[in-house]
Amino acid sequence: MKPQKLEKGDTIAFVAPAGGLAALTLHRLEKGRKYFEELGYKVKIFPTAKKNSGISSDTAENRAKDIMAAFEDKKIKTIITTIGGNTSHQTLEYLDFKTIKRNPKILCGYSDITSLHLALYSQTGLVGFYGPAVITQFGENPNPDEFTATHFFKAVTKNIGEVKPSRQWTDDKNIDWINKDDLKKKRKHRENKGYEWLKEGKAEGKILGGCLPVILHLAGTKYWPDFKDKILLLETPEGEDFRKGESLAKVDSALGDLRNLGVFKQIKGIVFGRGFGYTEEQIKTLKEIILYNTRDYSIPILYNVDIGHTDPIITIPLGVKVELDSKRNKFGFLEQAVL
Question: Is 309 one of the annotated active-site residues of the chain?
Answer without folding.
Answer: yes
